[in-house]
Amino acid sequence: EVQLLESGGGLVQPGGSLRLSCAASGFSFSSYAMSWVRQAPGKGLEWVSGITDSGGSTYYADSVKGRVTISRDNSKNTLYLQMTSLRAEDTAVYYCAKRRIRWSCMDVWGKGTTVTVSS
Amino acid sequence: QSLLTQPPSTSGTPGQMVTISCSGSSSNIGGNTVNWYQQLPGTAPKLLIYNNSQRPSGVPDRFSGSKSGTSASLAISGLQSEDEADYYCAAWDDSLNGVVFGGGTKLTVL
């Protein structure tokens, strides 16, 4: 079964850091680009970052550029999102998603992990 | 403010057809393909339509998508109660060099 499982969310103070992980199974992880998408409470979806299959290229939304780093370990079938200088507006459910054909086409999603930034 | 504009809400009765619009610009919809996602309450989004009008395996043919110029539409025919969900359009934006989502449309089945 194709599956993505996020972890690493939690409560963090403003200005703090957090690393999210996404464990992939059931497909050839190293063959697919991946993305992180977030959803603030009661709000819509926001694409956060993407990384190519090899990890050679990365893309970021302006809202997180400079504060977030996406990476992957293909030997561990795991995607990461390192977040620093966290702000209240980063509070959201963070989903990892597998790209299909194009960046805006994501055909497999995890259940999400919740990040809460609050003092 | 999303670069892709969707109506915040729409509604219909069982058996009806509803359409949801998604309006963008030349830097996103005008030059790239559109995808649609369905998000049932409390769950992760699910890919509903890709490449403007293609359905992934398992998606009923009651769901259809189209694109013209800088706009796209999702049509749901034979509306069912289980279609009650939030629907999002998405496309790559060449100016931002990233994916943009519409603000989402909440579909209520009356």
Describe this structure in words.
The complex is a heterodimer of chains A (119) and B (110). In chain A, 0% of the residues lie in helices and 55% in strands. Chain A has no helices and eleven strands. By secondary structure, chain A is mainly β. In chain A, strands 2, 4, 5, 6, 9, 10 and 11 form a seven-stranded mixed β-sheet that branches. In chain A, strands 1-3-8-7 form a four-stranded antiparallel β-sheet, with no helix packed on it. With 110 residues, chain B is mainly β. Chain B has strands at 9-12, 18-23, 34-39, 46-49, 63-68, 71-76, 85-93, 98-101, 105-109. Chain B is globular and about 40 Å long. Chain B starts with 8 loop residues before the first strand and ends with a strand. In chain B, 40% of the residues are buried.
What does this entry show, briefly?
The complex is a heterodimer of chains A (119) and B (110). With 119 residues, chain A is an all-beta fold.
Determine the strand fraction of chain A and express it as a percent band. over 45%
Q: What is the count of β-strands of chain A?
A: 11
Question: Looking at the structure, what is the overall shape of chain A?
Answer: globular
Q: What are the secondary-structure elements of chain A, in order, as H or E? A: EEEEEEEEEEE
Give the termini distance of chain A in whole angstroms: 39 Å
Low-confidence stretches of chain B: none
Percent range for helical residues of chain B?
A: under 10%
pLDDT < 50 runs, ≥5 residues of chain A: none
Q: Biggest interface between protein chains, with counts per chain? A: A-B, 24 and 29 residues
Biggest pleated-sheet summary of chain A: 7 strands, mixed
User: Which structural class should the secondary elements of chain A be placed in?
Assistant: mainly beta
